[in-house]
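Summary of Year 1 activities. Much of the first year was spent building the evaluation harness for sequence design. The harness presents a backbone, in tokenized form, and records the residue chosen at every position. We chose the following record to illustrate the format because it has been used consistently in internal testing since the harness was completed.
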């Protein structure tokens, strides 16, 4: 059993990711405050996300924050893996069109790359790996996946990233049309965090 600390630093500057993490923890009754690197203006973010997979990149990000700030740290490395693109953009999801974090350009490039792919071969999944490094340095890694398919034009304005072009299995709405609570129930991030919560509860 590892108690959740009053606050944890999420190794990110992506505030939409932070919002989802905070919301998911709160929905599980955990009142830990999720800070981000924006709360630490002196922190020099020199992590190069050059690992070969989500696990490796999440470890790099969480360890760097734990080492530099000496606090409990958490990282989420996530992305969209498209079957017809052999699992890409995958770990390159945030910079698929070249500029890091340009959600619209990234999404448009995936749509263009998939435009001739028929409906039955438009399967895809979101993957999230969450790494938690406790104050004392113990590390916990969990993973969550959300299967679904890509549509051919964006719909909805909730969520972030590739949400407007992704419909989860069993749904008709895109992730960007789902309520935040429904997205969290189904999402890769929601599942990875639920696993982490039960792991820490021992
Ligand atoms: P940090 O590395 O600083 O945490 P980032 O946005 O660069 O922030 P990642 O390297 O993990 O994060 O890349 C994740 C990308 O995958 C993100 O930019 C989105 O494009 C996409 N993505 C991840 N989760 C998503 C979700 O729930 N909905 C839509 N797109 C998502």
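For this record, the design step produced the sequence shown next.
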């Amino acid at each position: 059993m590892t108690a959740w600390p009053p606050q944890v630093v999420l190794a990110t500057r992506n505030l939409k990711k932070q919002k989802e993490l905070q919301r998911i923890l709160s929905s599980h009754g955990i009142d830990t405050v999720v800070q981000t690197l924006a709360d630490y203006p002196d922190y020099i973010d020199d992590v190069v996300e050059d690992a070969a997979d989500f696990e490796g990149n999440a470890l790099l990000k969480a360890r760097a924050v734990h080492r530099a700030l000496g606090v409990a740290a958490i990282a989420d490395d996530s992305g969209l893996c498209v079957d017809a693109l052999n699992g890409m953009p995958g770990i390159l999801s945030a910079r698929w069109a070249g500029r890091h974090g340009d959600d619209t350009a990234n999404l448009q490039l995936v749509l263009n790359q998939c435009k001739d792919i028929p409906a039955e071969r438009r399967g895809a999944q979101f993957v999230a790996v969450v790494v938690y490094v406790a104050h004392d340095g113990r590390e916990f890694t969990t993973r969550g996946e959300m299967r679904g398919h890509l549509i051919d034009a964006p719909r909805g304005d909730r969520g972030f990233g590739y949400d407007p072009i992704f419909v989860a299995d069993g749904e008709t709405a895109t992730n960007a049309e789902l309520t935040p609570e429904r997205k969290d129930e189904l999402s890769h991030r929601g599942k990875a965090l639920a696993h982490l919560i039960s792991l820490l509860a021992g």
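The mean pLDDT is 97. Quantitative recovery figures across the full test set are reported in Table 2.
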